[in-house]
Backbone:
């Protein structure tokens, strides 16, 4: 009997799973295994809601496996030790897993591969990161040429998607840990592969055609909401891309542009994964060397006000409260609050990056880091350093009637439309009529945007004037030390 292990990490699905297909090929028995890694569970970047989504996803995967004659084997401990013990226990000839490219995953998989036979399959992205490179083999560090090359490579078709296997024969005697119980949390996404597929189909049928026009509206449910499922591989990147490509083929006129724009967002995900693989140092410092000199203000009280949604800027506070309550935030809102933290408050982008990872259900090391560095102006293909989002203008544009603000900042529920984006401009009589006294019921702005913008640009200009520093020569403050107030 030839036995193999399917080591599940970020691929909680049965359909279009290349690692599972490889494990089944020529095997008499396949053992699906998930290792509860203490390093990841105790990470300062771990998120309670993300763990709850993962654990519920594992329970659903176990139920799906049982329909196919299998079950999930859960072990707790160092992955090297756990897999080595399981290989010895079962006589498994090979361990199959979907490749991951984060710095920790790369080190972990190398350590596992030195102790047990390990074969990694593609599947995290549509194209492997090393396949989308310049002619000389160097990685792209600008999105547009990356996306052009990405689109020239062979694109998947629906016929290439792997169906879920009919059966997964698994020996019945293996000991397994219980999947940890999740806190009773209200999650905005139903976990599991079936839920992911339903969400994808619903988006493709009803919303994708208008995606390019409505995707930035924070008051609307106009995005796919698939990022949590892609984060844990409850749906494959190939299936999502095929859906976009099919829509591009079938749609005409303006409707086609929605699918084109959505596909470009999927390519952004793969671009950031490529950046993380080729430049793992971005997890701890700015990609752009010049900004490793930037002197952040790092005011802890201001940071706490931002975390708790008490900045006095309604769009910022609404987004931060939504994050705390649900583990989710609209992408446009993510850019607004990231700009406010790094530019208006001049707080190190890594403080915000960590806070997001501690709360986001879809918190992904590559996308989260890429998004934060883009907004801060410190990353690859980043927004220019002098681009500072005006929170009032952003709010007016993307939440014009204040519906998003009123939902998450109930103190402002009765504030008139014309001042909902800047309530500090209300007269005393208006404040009394709306039941919201600024400075009492709702905070006054903690900074004046125009002054804060000038301060930020000056700080960036000073950093740009500094002499260059060799790579590895400076640690630009990834911790929580205060460099000034």
Residues:
């Amino acid at each position: 009997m030839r036995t193999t292990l399917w080591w599940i990490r970020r691929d909680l699905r049965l359909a279009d799973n290349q690692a599972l297909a490889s494990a089944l090929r020529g095997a008499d028995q396949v053992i699906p295994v998930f290792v509860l890694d203490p390093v990841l569970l105790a990470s300062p970047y771990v998120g309670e809601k993300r763990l709850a989504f993962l654990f519920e996803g594992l329970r659903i995967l176990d139920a799906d496996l049982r329909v196919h004659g299998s079950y999930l084997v859960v072990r707790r401990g160092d992955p090297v030790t756990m897999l080595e013990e399981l290989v010895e226990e079962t006589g498994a000839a090979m361990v199959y897993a979907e490749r991951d490219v984060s710095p920790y995953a790369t080190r972990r998989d190398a350590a596992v591969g030195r102790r047990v036979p390990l074969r990694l399959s593609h599947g995290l992205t549509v194209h492997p990161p090393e396949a989308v490179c310049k002619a000389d083999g160097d990685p792209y560090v600008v999105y547009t040429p990356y996306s052009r090359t990405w689109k020239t490579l062979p694109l998947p078709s629906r016929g290439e998607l792997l169906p879920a296997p009919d059966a997964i024969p698994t020996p019945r005697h293996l000991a397994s840990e219980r999947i940890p119980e999740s806190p009773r949390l209200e999650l905005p996404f139903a976990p599991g592969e079936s839920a992911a597929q339903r969400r994808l189909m619903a988006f493709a049928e009803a919303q994708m055609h208008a995606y390019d026009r409505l995707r930035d509206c924070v008051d609307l449910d106009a995005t796919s909401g698939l990022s949590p499922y892609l984060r844990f591989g409850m749906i494959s990147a190939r299936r999502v891309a095929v859906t976009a490509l099919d829509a591009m083929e079938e749609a005409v006129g303006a409707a086609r542009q929605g699918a084109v724009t959505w596909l470009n967002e999927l390519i952004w995900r793969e671009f950031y994964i490529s950046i993380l693989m080729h430049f793992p140092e971005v997890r701890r410092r700015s990609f752009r060397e010049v900004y490793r000199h930037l002197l952040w203000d790092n005011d802890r009280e201001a940071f706490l006000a931002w975390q708790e949604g008490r900045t006095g800027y309604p769009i910022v506070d609404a987004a931060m409260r939504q994050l705390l309550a649900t583990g989710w935030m609209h992408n446009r809102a993510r850019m607004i609050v990231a700009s406010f933290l790094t530019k208006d408050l001049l707080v190190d982008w890594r403080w915000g990056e960590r806070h997001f990872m501690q709360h986001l259900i879809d918190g992904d090391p590559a996308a989260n880091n890429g998004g934060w560095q883009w907004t801060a102006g410190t990353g690859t293909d980043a927004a220019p350093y002098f681009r500072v989002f005006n929170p009032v203008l952003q709010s007016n544009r993307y939440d014009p009637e204040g519906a998003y603000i009123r939902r998450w900042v109930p103190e402002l529920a009765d504030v008139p439309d014309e001042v909902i984006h800047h309530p500090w401009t209300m007269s005393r009589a208006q404040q009394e009529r709306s039941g919201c006294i600024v400075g009492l019921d709702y905070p006054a702005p903690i900074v004046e945007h125009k002054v804060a913008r000038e301060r930020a640009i000056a700080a960036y200009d000073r950093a740009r004037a500094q002499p260059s520093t060799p790579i590895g020569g400076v640690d630009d403050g990834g911790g929580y030390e205060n460099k000034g107030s």
Q: What stands out?
A: The CA atoms of residues 309 and 320 lie 5 Å apart. The radius of gyration is 24 Å.
